[in-house]
Structure formats: C-alpha cells, structure tokens
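so my prof wants the structure for this chain in the tokens format not the other one, which i didnt know existed until like an hour ago. anyway here's the sequence
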Amino acid sequence: MNDDAWALENFSGTARLFPLPNLVMFPHVVQPLHIFEPRYRQMTIDALQDDRLLALCLLRPELMEPSDLLPAIFPVGCLCRIVAEKCLSDGRFLLLVRGLARVRIVEELPTDRPYRVARAHLMPDEIIMPVGESRQLRQQLADLILPRFIEPGGGQQSLREMFEGEMPLGALCDCLSYQLPFELSTKQALLSEPDVAVRATALISTLRSLTPLGAAAPRSRKFPPDFSLN
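here's what i got, hopefully its the right format
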C-alpha cells in the first residue's frame, strides 16, 4: 500500500479546510501552494505533524452576507496530501500537494485552531456503465482534445499517452478538468460529480461549447493574494 492509499484508508473524517478563491483542485493532480498567512502556517504545521492531509475547497463569495463571520464554501472539495514541503526562514511554506479524493463537507466543527475544520465524507468514483460506454466516452474526449493540442507528427506525447494508457476514465476526466481553461463554476461542477459517466459526458459537452478551446475568460491570479476572511 503506497502513502496515498494509506492516507485514504486511515482518513479520520475530520478535515482541515483550506478555502481558496481561484482554484478548484482535483484528485490525481499535483498543485504547488504558497502558505504565508499565520493561520495556514499553523494548519500546515499541524498537518505535517499528523496525517499530512488538507481539504482544498472553493469559496462562494456570492453567498456572503454582511453578518457572516466566515465566507461560504462549496460543499464538495478535494482531499489532498502534502507530498513535499519547504519551510522558509520567515515561517512561510512552499508545498506540493496531490489530490487524493473528492470529499463532501458535512458540517464545520468548533475548534480551538485558527483555521477551519470540518467533518467530511469521502466520495469515491461511481462507475455505473458498461465497459463499451467507457471506451466510447474516452474516444470522444480524445477526438475533441488531441487534434487541438497535437500537431501532426508533433509533440505533446504525454497528452497522447494519457488517452492511450491505462488511466481510468474518471482520473482522465479529473486531469483534463484541472488543466483545461474552464470557468471556475464549470470546474466545480465537474468536481462535484462522482458518477464517472455523467462527469465525462458533462466534460464532453463543455468542450463542444468552447469554440475555439480556451474561449473561457482568463482568470486573474494575484500572487501572493490579499489576506482574506476564509
């Protein structure tokens, strides 16, 4: 059993929440993080001393009320494991986290920690389709994506290998959803869908609606971002 599988097998059901305004994290991908706010430095220290797990989730500022103490978050996030870390001389951290699984945030819990904590349930992929349908969906994705990114006889071999290899359809959809230039709301909808066939069909529909691919508005990523209420 590798470290990721062990972490999922032993997940306590209590997750440290790391709400972000401009990132939807997916299982099977790796994301760098710059941890600079004091509360999230403490969260990182606690995680490194415990199970190395964080739950990345997207903020919902449109649901904020003036009286709210904490910004609302979407109920589905991504449980991630810290796979590499570097503590800088001023106490900031540079992390690499890998997405392990979808999690549904059931309820936030009272805590004496400076960051948010919640009870969360793992959401494994649901595969309710015959093998033939999976192959058809995979081929439709390949037909939509490969011609746009791979020139005849050209590069992007790693992308071609994703389709030709043994990566399960659910993982393939997650990797593509993370990489492609979709709106955050579209990415969140794809993250929130545990049924692989439904997820793949939604991804195909989204790709067909983008002409040309990449028509989604670019997202601004101020780095480092302003301190926030989350």
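also thought this was worth mentioning. The longest strand covers residues 93-109.
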